[in-house]
Amino acid sequence: MNLSYRRFFILALWLPLLCFGSARAGTYTLTIDEKAVNLTGKPQTAIVANGSLPAPTLHWREGEEVTLNVVNRLKEPTSIHWHGIVLPYRMDGVPGISFAGIEPGKIFTYRFRVKQNGTYWYHGHSGMQEQQGLFGALVIEPAHPHRPTERDYVLLLSDWPEADPERTLARLKKQSDYYNFQKRTVANLFTDLRERGVSETINDRLAWGQMRMEPTDLADVTGATYHFLVNGHTPAMDWAALFSPGDRVRLRIVNASAMTHFDVRIPGLKMRVIEADGQPVMPVDVEELRIAVAETYDVLVEPEADRAYRIFAEAMDRSGFASATLTPKIGLQAELPKMRPHTLLTLADMGPMHVGHGAHAEHQAAVPNDNGLDQPPHADHADHTGHQRHPRPASVPHAEAPAMGSYKALDYRHLMAAAPNRGWRQPDREIRLRLTGNMYRYIWSFDDVKYSDSEPIRVKFGEHIRFTYVNETMMNHPIHLHGLWQYLDNGNGAFNPKKHVISVPPGQTVSVIVIADAEGEWAFHCHLLYHMDTGMFRKLIVEKAEHVRE
User: Fold this and answer.
1) CA-to-CA distance for 179 and 220, rounded, in angstroms?
2) pLDDT tens digits for range 475-490
3) pTM to 2 decimals?
4) Are strands 271-276 and 279-291 parallel, antiparallel or unpaired?
5) How many Å apart are CA 467 and CA 540, to the nearest integer?
6) Contact (Cβ atoms closer than 8 angstroms) between residue 303 and residue 272
7) In whole angstroms, what is the distance from residue 22 CA to residue 16 CA?
8) Is the dihedral angle over the CA atoms 470, 474, 478, 479 positive or is it negative?
9) In the prediction, which pLDDT does 223 show?
10) Which residues contact 98 (CB under 8 A, 6 or more apart)?
11) Would you tell me how many other CB atoms lie within 10 Å of the CB of residue 183?
12) How confident is the model at residue 533, as a pLDDT?
């Protein structure tokens, strides 16, 4: 064999390895089991993966073919759903839809190629196991990495219950406001009589009585039973992340809660939002953001001072908080911000709802504006700092782009895709879904039909469908569609952001465009665990188009 031929032969042997970044394979094992924990001052039982609460953060690379062996050591069936991941539907991990579940003592192997990058998460999809600790983060590196930051941390927010989740649900069914410890008192009545007059006060009380709800009823399950965690740590345990002054720090914020929306801020630091639900967006600077259940946001912060900063995540209803510390030195702590007062729901907030239906309106706990007053978080904040809406930009790498604006609080209308969505066009048809429920009976549904009585939603492969969500209830509903992206129709056309979760505020209507580009049967539900469990769930079937050959 001559030298030139030998070189060619060696190159041919090594060529697949030189393309490792797009073709590598990784094998992972997750063992699901029970574990005794003590987060609340008394021993409890958690459901964990590999003995960890939360489950281990899995690091993948775009293009990698992953093999995940899930071992069930529980006495009941289990499952893992790869939230926001594009994959064959048989690998999606939803018992009764995409597979049968993993029986006790059995192993199920998930296998698929990773077709995306960004921050996502995974969680149990069996019973209440997600609420009991079965969740973890996914960090997927791009095939062609961007300029890295000096520090990169996952912040996994969660709500940990003192009570058994099944008992919590039973209590809600018997008394929907069981965990509302912020009800109005006799003192509030006399204050209202003095400030609003007898007639208005009586009419207000009668209206709330007809709806069988309280103006303080902002969340189904509250800090009365929940402890709010960051990476499995209570505020007293104070999870800490290190930085050096001048570092660019990437925070991958994941809301892995069962029922809790959080308002996240870092006093003294602005957050530059660069990704939403794992997808690059045009950078936006904000002082705080609301993260709905199951959403993810990636933000950049650049602490210049040699001091600690408090990462503060208030529950939307202000019944508690999660916190962590960003610090240049372990042991150096930041002052804990004061909790902001909870706000009352007013009849004006309810919108044109039907009085007398127990679950027909709700208030989003407000965030302060620049004048220190409260206002709904989905109001337009574009004029707060003199920045106006920008025209659609040319595509630029998100880590290098300047901020498109600076706002007090992030709003969905601020989100623009970092690059135009290929193939974007107007939808072929519309499907309207009413988000419905009865808070008094604690039943949740789409179109007043619970999942057990519903028919699947059927679409054809290749269709572009506008889903219009009409929220007729008192709650925020984070709507999650498995297997397919939802392009939030926020007026940016081809730059509409794509998300795997869309939070629909009470009394509002939100539209998304879904491209049916993945055949199979997919779960479609509200990601508030107790709402999903009681009926706000559907199956969506993407069928082969008639012209597509088998």
Assistant:
1) 7
2) 899 999 999 999 999 9
3) 0.83
4) antiparallel
5) 12
6) no
7) 10
8) negative
9) 81
10) 89, 90, 91, 92, 520, 521, 522, 523
11) 11
12) 94
